[in-house]
Design goal:
Aldehyde Dehydrogenase, Chain A, domain 1; Aldehyde Dehydrogenase, Chain A, domain 2; 3 domains; 7-stranded mixed sheet; 6-stranded mixed sheet; 27 strands; binds 4-oxobutanoic acid; Aldehyde_DH_dom; NAD-dependent succinate-semialdehyde dehydrogenase; oxidoreductase
């Protein structure tokens, strides 16, 4: 059975969209994006998604909706309920009402729900990939990879649900015993981003379900459809009403502000920009909420003179081009030993210029559009600034004309340390390369940022690898590896990249409180 889309079959929706989109935004090697007007064939069903509150789908109290657009050609994909503050509070009411019952549900039952949801996500990978590609642009291959990643959080936390434990010990002085237990923190608010619309949801929802927490999820307004599809799957997997509530809104600040001010909320987890993260942390102080923040990055990619350059270029392609560069873990700047920098730049440019830019659903597309024009304009500004600061564009360096927000995969070498592109998060397919002469200089350059999420190190010298990994001010290091993300590993950053860890054995701890009971034991 396919996803049911509030009475209409999402499979039918996806099929009709897929047929309609065949040929739209086909890549054209002359440099333009050809848009084949398929309006006559589109015949889009008026997909309207609603809010999920207490297990029921309902309209926003305001009756308002907003449009979700395909970043690959600007087509409207759906109208989505635009929740008001009252809708947000109703969702929290539902989460609060479900909390006690859910916390009392046997861990095995919570794990089994997650396991069934894992199976369903895997089974529906193609449908989900089409929805995701349409709403955020990346190629279908990228969307499928994200869906596998997303599903694995459910499988991982299905296994963690039954391993929550405490301890029992004797007080050193005698006279009492100490019983330490773990309990769910309570109702949570999750604010998820558009760049990984499903995985950033499952990375929070999975451990919350495993730990026995209820939740309100507010997905990014650009990408609500993947989250709705996930809500349908979790309901089908047997998640009780009210445990997961989904609220889409364009008034994010108002709705999340009201929830953060509500003393019934006990935790907030946010993935997104450092700027918004700071504001959420400030607001969460009033009720002293448990907080997890997964914020911006500015990952350095270090290539030492002894690195295997083939592996370094493979790693660079992954670290830079995964998700079209729209990832907080993306290699943002390349610091390469001066003796190998030209060779590295030439090899990377060869690989980048081979990539096919096109609509995410078109056959052969490697690189889809950026999510919106503001993102593309920022990329253009950063490239222009890098060139003003002496950078030489080796490949790319321009937008693709035509509908959609496309930008060519770009390599710039000789970027000087004062260029903005080495300090600001690019969130696009641009690899700026700067050089260093020795290890200390490489580390100084890598740490010269307010961010501290991920870093990548390429070297064949094990001593150096460990030394450098220890000195880098980041939460995650890829050692001769271009991807650090793994559901079994603790994902998270330091400095302005936030705090808290998602995934791994640490992931579930974010959703658990520790309580201890002192038990008097008569001594005679
Ligand atoms: O963009 C943030 C998350 C990226 C990831 O989980 O790999």
């Amino acid at each position: 059975m396919g996803l049911a889309w509030h009475g209409m079959s999402a499979a039918r929706y996806v099929r009709s969209r897929r047929a309609a989109l065949a040929g739209v935004g086909a890549p054209d090697h002359s440099g333009r994006m050809t848009y084949i007007d398929t309006t006559a064939q589109l015949a889009l069903p008026a997909v309207q998604t609603r809010l999920l509150v207490g297990g029921a789908w309902r309209d926003a109290a305001s009756g308002r909706t907003f449009a979700v657009e395909d970043p690959g050609n600007g087509d409207e994909l759906a109208q989505v309920a635009d929740a008001s503050v009252a809708d947000g509070v109703a969702a929290l009411d539902a989460a609060v009402a479900a909390q006690a019952g859910w916390a009392a549900t046997p861990p095995r039952e919570r794990g089994e729900i997650l396991r069934r949801a894992f199976d369903l996500v895997v089974e529906r990978q193609d449908e989900l990939a089409t929805i995701m590609t349409l709403e955020m642009g990346k190629s279908l291959a990228e969307s499928r990879a994200e869906i596998t990643y997303a599903a694995e959080f459910f499988r991982w936390f299905a296994e963690e649900a039954v391993r929550i434990s405490g301890r029992f010990s004797a007080a050193p002085g005698g006279g009492s015993r100490l019983l330490t237990m773990k309990q769910p923190v309570g109702p949570c608010l999750f604010v998820t981003p558009w760049n990984f619309p499903l995985a950033m949801g499952t990375r929070k929802i999975g451990p919350a379900i495993a730990a026995g927490c209820t939740m309100v999820v507010k997905p990014a307004s650009a990408t609500p459809l993947s989250m709705y599809a996930l809500g349908e799957i979790l309901a089908e997997a047997g998640l009780p009403d009210g445990v997961l509530n989904i609220v889409t809104t364009r008034s994010s600040g108002d709705v999340t502000g009201a929830l953060l001010a509500d003393p019934r909320l006990r935790k907030v987890s946010f993935t997104g920009s450092t700027e918004i993260g700071r504001s959420i942390v400030e607001q969460s102080a009033a009720n002293l909420l448990r907080v997890s923040m997964e914020l911006g990055g500015n990952a350095p990619f270090l290539v030492f003179e002894d690195a295997d350059l083939d592996k370094a270029v493979d790693g660079a392609m992954l670290a830079k081009m995964r998700n079209v560069g729209e990832a907080c873990t993306a290699a943002n700047r390349f610091h390469v030993h001066a003796s190998v920098a030209d060779e590295f730049a030439a090899r990377l440019a060869d690989r980048m210029s081979d990539l096919t830019v096109g609509h995410g659903t078109a056959d052969g597309t490697d690189v889809g559009p950026l999510v919106d024009d503001a993102t593309r304009e920022k990329v253009e500004d950063l490239v222009a600034d890098a060139v003003r600061h002496g950078g030489e564009v080796v490949t790319g360096g321009e937008r693709v004309d035509g509908p959609g927000h496309y930008y060519r995969p770009t390599v710039i070498k000789g970027v000087s340390r004062d260029a903005r592109i080495l300090r600001e998060e690019v969130f696009g397919p641009v690899a700026p390369i700067a050089t260093f002469d020795d290890e200390d200089e490489a580390i100084r350059a890598a740490n010269d940022t307010e961010y501290g999420l991920a870093a990548y190190v390429f070297t064949r010298d094990l001593d150096r690898a460990l030394r450098v990994a220890e000195r880098l001010e980041v939460g995650m290091v890829g050692l001769n590896a271009g991807v650090v993300s793994n559901p079994a590993a603790p994902f998270g950053g330091v400095k302005a990249s936030g705090f808290g860890r998602e995934g791994g054995a640490e992931g579930i701890e974010e959703y658990l409180e520790t309580k201890y009971v002192a038990i008097a034991v008569p001594t005679d």
